[in-house]
Amino acid sequence: MEYNEIFKELKNKIYRPVYFLYGDEPYFIDRITNYIHQNALPEAERSFNQTVLYGKDTTIEEVINAARRYPMISNHQVVIIKEAQNINNLKPLLHYLEKPQKSTILVFNYKYKNIDKRTKVYKALKDKAVLFESQKIQEHKIPLWISKYLTAKEVKISDEAAALLAEYLGNDLNKITHELEKLFIALPQGKSNIDPADIERNIGISKDYNVFELNKALAEKNVVKANIIINHFAKNPNENPLPKIIGSLYYFFSKVLGYHFVNKRDSPREIAAAIKVNPKMTWQYKNASQKYDANKLARIIGYLREYDLKSKGLNNTGTPDGELLRELIFKILH
């Protein structure tokens, strides 16, 4: 089942006997688990009919024994297995899945790991349980995810602000939502939109001096603006570590290079899908591709690899990161 389908059922108080939630993205797994934990039973019944076990401290046999118990003066009991990825052998679960206890809601919180899809256990879970794979969201889709998350809370965010957050926070959804919750609290009463100034004021990411703005300046070959930004970076190396800057530049210029090889007759959305970028930002890669031909971009990728190694001490006799950054940006622009 998909995440939205599961939540729709849960909010309608439709609970299934077994949930197996697994994958690399903990955010969705924890949200489903926590919702069941907090809502499947009335608070007064939880002390009697809700059990939380931990995979590193239990066996699958103990899990099954707990699941086969009958609830006390209630229609249901809840058994939640946290860190279920630490259970060594899931094979005995096959017998339970053949005839699960209907009065039990059994939840496996199986994070940071995938289950082998060739096994009988996986096939049985797919057939008999709610099986949900929680996958990492690709970084270029994070700005859209942020926008949708906020829309659900009746708050809007500008495309630039969403891109800025994604640039600095990556695709760690727990970290992103934590920062967004801080923004909700800090927004003035009656304000229902978030812009880069709000992010700078409340999260500490400068709206003017950040890698997102550096990418824009380089895309436009704006030498003055690019140098103002990197001079700020050089003065604040702890806030703007060189490896992180190089990683962002590598991502940006590799997408610009990819733009050279797409079908220009395709729609912006099709082009964005081909090079794996946010559709709302396709224009930036298009503009940059007009400033840098494919040969120059190949050389830039080479410079980025070279300076990434230098930032880590290879072929570097002690040049400060600020100077390395200035050298790199000079080579990119000229």
How does this model look, in words?
The chain is an alpha/beta fold. The protein is built from 17 helices and seven strands. It has helices spanning 3-11, 26-39, 43-49, 60-68, 93-98, 120-128, 142-151, 159-169, 173-186, 196-202, 211-219, 223-235, 242-259, 268-275, 282-291, 294-311, 321-333; strands spanning 18-23, 50-54, 77-82, 104-111, 130-134, 156-157, 193-194. Strands 2-3-4-1-5 form a five-stranded parallel β-sheet, with helices on both faces. A two-stranded parallel sheet has the order 6-7.
Mean pLDDT: 91
Label the structural class.
alpha/beta
Note poorly predicted spans: none
Total of DSSP H or I helical runs spanning 4+ residues: 17
- End-to-end Cα distance, whole Å, is 52 Å
User: Per the principal axes of the C-alpha atoms, what is the gross shape?
Assistant: elongated
Largest sheet at a glance? Answer: 5 strands, parallel
Helix/strand order, N-terminal first: HEHHEHEHEHEHEHHEHHHHHHHH
Radius of gyration (Å): 25 Å
| Total beta strand runs | 7
Beta-strand content bin: 5-15%
